[in-house]
Give the backbone structure.
Amino acid sequence: MNAASAFWDGLTRGWGVDQPAVLALLVLALLPLVASAFRRRGIASTRLIPDDPLSVAVGAGLRLAGAVAIIALVLGLAGLHRREQSVEREGTGAHLVLLLDRSSSMDNSFADRAPTGDQESKSAAAKRLLAEFVARRPHDRIAVAAFSTSPMPVLPLTDHHEVVDAAIDAIDRPGLAFTDVGRGLALAFSYFADDTDESSRAVLLVSDGAALIDRRVQEALRDAAARTPVHLYWLFLRSRGAQGIYDVPASGDDSAQANPERHLHLFLQSLGVPYRAFEATSPQAVAQAITEIDRQETRPIRYVERIPRRDLVRPAFFVAALATALLLAAKLAERQLRPAGRGAKEGTDAIDLRRAA
């Protein structure tokens, strides 16, 4: 029984019907092979008829058309379809987590004021450029997370990029006041906890600032980085006039409270994972940074392409209609032949009647 089931599954791999019981009607496809809808006339001997390969071929073709019409009609009634399939392919890409800052400062322009005229807010520029970034990476699995007063999981790792686009489209909504980047990073690292794929993993942090990270959160991040190696990128959307992450104060206070962005940069460097930071002070600089990140994350990746179910009911009915139309045309072209002797006798009788009249 198992062998028969395995044979049938192998035979119908990728194909299916909604109403299997209707397939019992396929036996009717034998009717055109044993019967005919065309007129038949007996003759005394087949030796009286010369060989006619064309007629034999036409006859066989019409029988085949009848069988095809019945088979296609039955398959259409049964709901023929191609099943949904998953095909493993190879390409280039990575598993990415987009970690987005949703603090209220992201609603300002790079001039650190409310955008006016044709100016873009930092969140709007990030949304536009990240959407283009995702569109260039069709094979990536992408997750989205956000942080402000607290971390906010938005979307787990997925290869459905239309959902990713919707999540990115929401990042320019009005933000909150604070920036808890530490717990946001912990959330981003947690997305890879159950990811057993050997593909490249990366976290892209998009933020215009930083804040103090609690020591316990720092230890949790170090532990997560040791257990789940990732490539870490920080796209720092720096407001004009603000202190940069590479700026070392010439004198004065260089504490984490006074320079949180610089100390976040130093902390990320100490995690022991490949890390790179980009400072951007304009939408053009953001675009250049994202292009560079796109170039960096181009390693080989195995991905699964899902091929959706495809209904074949209409094509089946179309084939049945064509075959039926062919049979109908052949039937309408059929002519009844009269024996030559009978026609001659009827003609002679008609002449005799006219003469008698």
Summary: The mean pLDDT is 80.
